[in-house]
Structure formats: structure tokens, C-alpha cells
Specification:
Strand content: under 5%
Order of helices and strands: HHHHHHHHHH
Shape: globular
Number of helices: 10
Largest sheet: none
Helix content: 40-55%
Distance between the termini: 49 Å
Length: 295
């Protein structure tokens, strides 16, 4: 198959699906565009009605920048890069690597509810592991600094990240699907919407800890300390790497919640060097200058 034609078809297909989503021409339960809008408005409403940091403005610092990042990373960049991923899939297929090559677990043999649970847990672990790499290696940390340059936490900060993180996360998520025999549950949209909602809540200005379930699910208190400017010397590379689940941090001893007041400085040493505008942040991280590791 012609690779250029493959790229074009994938690009146009993703663009068409996104446009149809905006026009409500796709099934409502797979409409990620309006689903993101609805989840964002609900969590923002919680921030307005039940603010944790009461001195924080409803339109906090960089609110509109983060809102733009949500749509850029979730839709615009996804459209641009879709053709590249399609071509990579063909290249791997040409050398004998298929969706079932690394299969360890045949997920389709399980009941639907168990498929969704396994899919959710495995993908979350892959994201947790990837997140630790973003903090451990300086080359990756350069790009992750965009996310950690947030100085006031709010729901939209969830999807404020450098486009290079998409390049890293996507292949590893695909690897997780390959482990499941190349199978993604038909109802996987449920998992994706749950992950978006949890991610929004974790970055929100709302105090939620989930009680005893805090050892399973990530929460705004725990994630706030992931963004803390000051951390213990023995954990200068970061803490609380959980995405949707906190259990990985408790299992691997990367959990850290010294208090629950919420009034802490966010960012990292040298965050004043981060460009303020979106366009300049797009190219941030490619400099040969040595980045300052978060501490």
C-alpha cells in the first residue's frame, strides 16, 4: 500500500470524525469532543461551587492557555499525527510485528466488565511507568516541564503538556494493547471517559481524597504534591506519579502527602525560563541547554 495514500486517508478520516463529532453526527457515547466539553464544565462547576483554595480566581492564571492546550492535544495534534501512526503500523507489519505478536492475555475471552477493568488497569500502569520516565531522564524532563510550569492548579491543567509527550505515550499504550492480543474492548470509550474525568478532578481546585479508596484512586490532594515546587532531597525526581490510580505509588513507594492544606508553591527550579506563549512552548525542550531537574 502506498504510504502517502495511507497517511492521507488516516489524516482525513480522523479530521472527518472530529468534525462529525462537533456536529453531533457520531454516537453520543463516542463523542469525545462534546464529552470533553461536558466533563470540563462539570469539574469547573465543582471548582466554582466547592473551591479548595478559596483565594484562587475562577479564571486562574493561564486558564485560557490550558483550555487551548486541551483541544490542541486531544484533537488538533491527534489529527496531525494519526497518519504517522498508521504508517508506523504498516512498517511494523511489513517486518512481521503484528497486533498479536506480543500477546500474553486474550482479553476477548473475559466478560465485558472484566475486559474493561483489565484494560483500564493495564493502560494506567503503562501511563504511570511512562510518567516516571518523564521525570527520570533529563531529555524527557525538558518536554515535561511544560506541564509542570503550571503555577495555579485547575482542571484544564490536566491536558497542558508538550506534544512530544504524545509521541512517547502513544507507542507504549499501543504496546499495552498488543499484550492484550491487539484487542481493545468495544466499550473502551467508557475507560477513556473515566480517565478524562479522573484526570480533570486530580488537577482541579477541589479537595477530594476518596477516604480509604485513596490507596486505589489518585486524587487532587495527592496530585497537587506531584506539582510541588519543593520536595524532599531523596525524592527530587518527583513523587505521586499516578494517573488515574494511586496504588502504583503506594506499591513502589513513590507516594508523598505531607499535609492537605493545599497552599503550596507549584512549579520547579528554573520555571521562570518557560516561555509564556503557546507557540514558543511548542518548541521548548529541543534546546541543547541542560534542563534543571525538578527538586
Amino acid at each position: 500500500m502506498d504510504y502517502l495514500e495511507t497517511f492521507k486517508n488516516s489524516f482525513l478520516g480522523t479530521l472527518s470524525w472530529t468534525w462529525k463529532s462537533i456536529l453531533f453526527e457520531v454516537p453520543w457515547y463516542t463523542n469525545y469532543f462534546w464529552g470533553l466539553v461536558l466533563i470540563s464544565l462539570i469539574v469547573w462547576g465543582f471548582e466554582i461551587i466547592f473551591p479548595w483554595r478559596k483565594n484562587q480566581s475562577v479564571f486562574r492564571k493561564d486558564f485560557w492557555l490550558d483550555a487551548f492546550y486541551m483541544f490542541f492535544n486531544f484533537f488538533v495534534f491527534a489529527i496531525i499525527i494519526s497518519g504517522v501512526y498508521k504508517i508506523l503500523g504498516l512498517l511494523f507489519s511489513d517486518i512481521g510485528i503484528s497486533a498479536t505478536t506480543l500477546a500474553i492475555l486474550k482479553l476477548e475471552q473475559f466478560p465485558v466488565w472484566l475486559q474493561l477493568v483489565v484494560f483500564f488497569v493495564l493502560l494506567d500502569f503503562v501511563q504511570w511507568f511512562t510518567h516516571t520516565l518523564l521525570h527520570r531522564y533529563e531529555f524527557l524532563w525538558r518536554f515535561h516541564q511544560v506541564h509542570h510550569s503550571v503555577k495555579e492548579m485547575g482542571f484544564a491543567a490536566h491536558l497542558r503538556y508538550h506534544w512530544m509527550e504524545n509521541i512517547l505515550y502513544k507507542p507504549l499504550k499501543t504496546l499495552a494493547v498488543m499484550i492484550l492480543g491487539g484487542f481493545e474492548p468495544e466499550q473502551a470509550y467508557i475507560v477513556h471517559f473515566i480517565a478524562i474525568a479522573i484526570g480533570h478532578l486530580n488537577h482541579s481546585n477541589v479537595k477530594i481524597t476518596w477516604g480509604p479508596l485513596k490507596y486505589v484512586f489518585n486524587n487532587p490532594v495527592m496530585h497537587l504534591y506531584h506539582h510541588a515546587y519543593s520536595l524532599p532531597e531523596d525524592r527530587s525526581r518527583g513523587v505521586n506519579f499516578g494517573i488515574s490510580l494511586s496504588l502504583w505509588d503506594y506499591i513502589f513507594k513513590t507516594n508523598y502527602i505531607p499535609e492537605e492544606g493545599g497552599e503550596i508553591e507549584l512549579g520547579y527550579e528554573g520555571d521562570k525560563e518557560m516561555p509564556k506563549g503557546f507557540l514558543k512552548q511548542l518548541t521548548f525542550g529541543f534546546s541543547s541547554a541542560k534542563p534543571k531537574v525538578k527538586d
